[in-house]
Amino acid sequence: MGIEIERKFLLKDDSWRSLSSGRIYYQGYLSSTKEHVVRVRIIGAKGFLTIKRFISGRLRMEFEYEIPFEDAREMLDKVCEKPLIEKKRYRIEHQGMVWEIDEFLGANRGLVVAEVELEQENQTVEKPEWIGAEVTEDPRYLNINLVKHPFSKW
Fold it and tell me: pTM surpassing 0.70?
């Protein structure tokens, strides 16, 4: 079992764009409740199945498995809730931590958020200058909620 501890932020500006080139992600949800989600994701030519159980705002149990690409594609097309999450993810290292910036496409176009994974829940984070307001505790920014309430409808 893995534990995921992450914080999520909005961005102040686009100065981060020159620091990384991104990869396209497609993801959808097979099941979602307040307690857990089951996600299918395609990154490049690989498929993944992920199960997350919420523990607190920053803390989740996480199980992730690679699955055949064609199975992932079929689940996204025929089984997952719509709209799918489409995003371009950028990875940027800053002060020994990796920041993942998600630039959303499709129904969530216009939304850009940054996440950083922590080793401990109370770990100090040195924020890059392009990081803005924290939205970790705001449920609107959870990917599963962006399926149910896309950014384009806020």
Answer: yes
